[in-house]
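A brief tutorial aside. Many learners find it easier to grasp structure tokens once they have seen a single protein encoded end to end. The record that follows does exactly this for tRNA (guanine(37)-N1)-methyltransferase. Read the sequence first, then the structure, and try to relate runs of similar tokens to stretches of the chain.
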Amino acid sequence: MVIKLIFRPNCLPFSVLSFPPRLFSRPLNFSLLSTSTTTAVAAVSSTLPYGPSLRKGYSPSPFPPTLHQCPSSEQESDSNLFDEDSFTRVFDLAALRVPSELCFGLENRLRGHLLNWPRVRNIARVPGDEIDAELKKLFPDCSSSNNLNTDNDALVTLNRRIYGKADGDGELLSPVLYRDKLARTFNSRGFVNFRNLAKISRPKKVKKKEEERKEKGKKGGVGRNEMAVVAVVEEEESDVSGLLGDEFKGKSWRGSTRLLLLDETYANKGINEMPEAIKAVLKEYVGDKGDSTFELVKCKLTLFYSYWQMNEVLEALLPNGMIIPSAFETVGHIAHLNLRDEHLPYKKIVAKVVLDKNKPKIQTVVNKTDIIHNDYRTMQLEVLAGNHSLVTTVVENGLRFHVDLATVYWNSRLSTERQRLLNYFTRDDVICDVFAGVGPIALAAARKVKHVYANDLNPYAVDYLERNSVLNKLEKKIEVFNMDGRRFIDTIFASHKTRPVTQVVMNLPNDATEFLDAFRGLFRKHHKDRGYTLPRIHVYGFSKAQDPEFDFHERIRIALSEVAFDVEMHRVRIVAPGKWMLCASFTLPERVAYSKTVSIL
């Protein structure tokens, strides 16, 4: 007889699936690595580290899967890239079948001897022997000698509970029976007597996912979130003395039970080969007649495609020796990949695995096909899997941003740097963001500072910047411009209607230093004696030099035509091998601000 149980992540109780009995009738001699015999599987397993692996166990598929093949065409459906059933693995295990009320205590006691595999609970339910807690009190205690009258009284009490006539028992009716009783005698005064009226009056909302899961369970399939199944293999006879030894005489099981899955090294071992801790537990619960409260049973643990992690699946699908592309940037519901040239023939396979293993958070997978070389800083993206919508919503620092990756630039990896920059600002600052984009710095600063002037050359970015300012209710503290960076700097500092700017942000790493000459002579029309506050400038840039700080510092000095001023350097992140992104913060030198030489716009 085969009993099957379903595992779900951090979920008890487990659902039961109705698989065909022939599925686990005998071990099949196939594995993901085309291992031909069960003996070969055991030999491979002995050389692998502890824990689940696609190289261990055996596959129930009748034929070994065909892997390491590229899709035949670019138009091939994502569902036909590879067979998910080929990742199913069956493991032979041993388990202790114990009463449900003792399972948690025994789990702590035998922790070191249990399975302890990630995403698989050590405790599993046994279907068919569950008893409701309320009904359990009505059953006679089989351990004591009860007479026939006691059994009859229990049966009468149970019948009274079934037919809703339990008023004399001193217990409340079930919600359904109680509602039925009150409905028959309902009047204007009886309305207040309903318990949990709102709860029982409203129909329960059944989600579509639950309905689909139930339908799949009826059809014998495995749902999307179902990771593993345990099949308990029992002998036809109730006597399991051959497995437990002559001193243990099993009887028909009564009451709710649980399975404690034992370590994989104890599979196919008898009671004499078990460690002393397990033997002690078995002997501790032996009755006077030699019958045991516990049972040692054999079971099969089946892990499905949904159980394996993304890197494990990719390692099996990609050729040997190839680097596994496991890192990607998340922008809302979009996963942004930067695949190497060696990964491009397998880009569809990689995208499908990334999508499968990160649902429902990730709904679209894209890959950057070319470097950023336009003035708008937009990326050339190719949709590899999922829906083709590149419009998404990003939440950062408590703000919501609408972003279209096809027309604007966004980099989630700079969120930490943006937060670091915001810590420099105070409530009295006035910010000038020269290259604002959709507003990740400008809008976050608007919640903290007095006022923000934000600009970008990309009209699509300016449109989203205005939308995001209204979305976050900050439109009164930010003014948006759409013009060239030099012209914007000259306009803000030359206008008498603008507020005195105290902080300038120039986050355009490729070309920001080329706009620094716009600050030459900005205060030439003002007198030094009036004590104007010179702004502090935060400029970003890239450097491939051996000493990136010195190289970036020299480029800033050349752009400003000034040597004697202090610059605070900060390494943001390494964007490529040998290429650093840096942030230089300095106060605009007085000689540059009051210079008679003016930059040419």
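Self-check: The longest helix spans residues 148-162. If you spotted this yourself, you are ready for the next section.
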